Amino acid sequence: MTKQFSLAHLTALGCSPPELIYIAARAGYDFVSLRPIFMGLPGEPNYALAENKQMMKETKAALSETGVKVLDIELARIYEGLDPKKYLPAFEVAAELGGKHVLSSIWTDDRNFAIECFQELCDLAEPFGLTIDLEFVPIASVKNLKGALEVLHAAKKENAGLMIDAHHFHRSKDKIEELDTIPREWFHYFHLCDATSTIPTSADEMVRILREERLYVGEGGIDVASIVNRLPEMPYAIELPNLKRSQELGYEEFARHCLETAKDYFAAHPRTSTVNP
């Protein structure tokens, strides 16, 4: 089966959605993963397409011209006091652009509130044909596979999914054998990257690496092949922010290197496992 790849926005966050699409097309990607939900982080560009009609028009034109498709949008964070309806305009954008999935993560320790919000997100997304894919993040409230599975089992929503990031899986010290018990229909796409095998003990250093210094697949110490061999075949979104390299190479050449090294890695590590293919 031919692998499909998406260029995740965080890999080239300085690029507007139209720019990202053109770069993805020239570099050979099948999809893009966009960030039309503005989170207000320091230095974060605002790509809220629901509020920027001109950029939305240019994004649709770029998709039409290149044939690149939208895989998913992000990030529908769940945090204390959230009204999930806040994300409705972004869901409308995703559907209009042909996207299929919405990435979510949980940043509140109020478990009942988090589950209720996640359920509401699923209900809001369902009419648009979107899934809500929960990502566990080692610096968030739901920080490992166990926590994510607890939410998904409690939510019991047909359009819910689980999105695993290679970096987060490794940093959370999860075991690959745990992947065998997960319903296959929960997997829609996977975040591909690498990082050093040493897990930072400092939260600040963890954040710095995950946002600024991830590595090409096969370059670090994460056994990516062992993870993906336990999972069904699905699109791979390359989320690989590396500020130094993207500045040195430029976003397009960096995105091309990210894709080429990922393809080289998979060629050198063909799927051999038959566990839940």
TrEMBL record:
Pfam families: AP_endonuc_2
Domain Xylose isomerase-like TIM barrel: 23-240
Listed GO MF terms: isomerase activity
UniProt xrefs under InterPro entries: IolE/XylAMocC-like (IPR050312), Xyl_isomerase-like_sf (IPR036237), Xyl_isomerase-like_TIM-brl (IPR013022)
Keywords: Isomerase
Top-level taxon in the UniProt lineage: Bacteria
The protein, known as: Sugar phosphate isomerase/epimerase family protein
Organism of origin: Halalkalibacter alkalisediminis
